[in-house]
């Protein structure tokens, strides 16, 4: 099901307090994932929202763990990906977990987060464990041009 259809069917509205915006252009999503080196990697996606990027990441990932804070998005993600064994959806604020304890293996981090959240996370991460890809609204707009 297309993201636009999900938004209409589920009557989804972006929540400004979570900085939500929904990227619906499949071509842009595909370009984003193709621009990374994520083949057969363990990936953490922060803020998957409706799962538009999640869908493409799961096609490449060895394992994909998605942290989502919004319970409404969790409901949608659970419906979309409940049968996909590669994907683990966690309803939790990623900024409140102990990153070093939660993650044991090398992972690639995909962040749909605000700039302030991104800066905080960069300071907390061990370069030997994490490769970080941050996707901001500005980057999405640049890719679109």
Short descriptors:
disordered C terminus, 145 residues, 40% helix, globular, alpha/beta
What does this structure look like?
The chain has 145 residues and is α/β, with parallel strands linked by helices. It has 7 helices and 5 strands, in the order H-H-E-H-E-H-E-H-E-H-E-H. Strands 3-2-1-4-5 form a 5-stranded parallel sheet, covered by helices on one side. Helix 2 (26-34) packs parallel to helix 3 (52-60). The longest helix has 11 residues, at 71-81. The protein is globular and about 40 Å long. Residues 114-123 and 136-145 have low confidence and may be disordered.
Tally the helices: what do you get?
A: 7
First-residue to last-residue Cα separation: 26 Å
Structural class assignment: alpha/beta
Which series of helices and strands comes N to C?
HHEHEHEHEHEH
The outline comes out as globular
Low-confidence runs of at least 5 consecutive residues: 114-123, 136-145
How many β-strand stretches?
5
Report the radius of gyration as a whole number of Å.
14 Å
Question: What is the typical, i.e. mean, pLDDT?
Answer: 78
Give, in spatial order, the strands making up the sheet with the most strands: 3-2-1-4-5
Strand content: 15-25%
The helix fraction, in percent, is 40-55%
The biggest beta sheet is recorded as:
5 strands, parallel
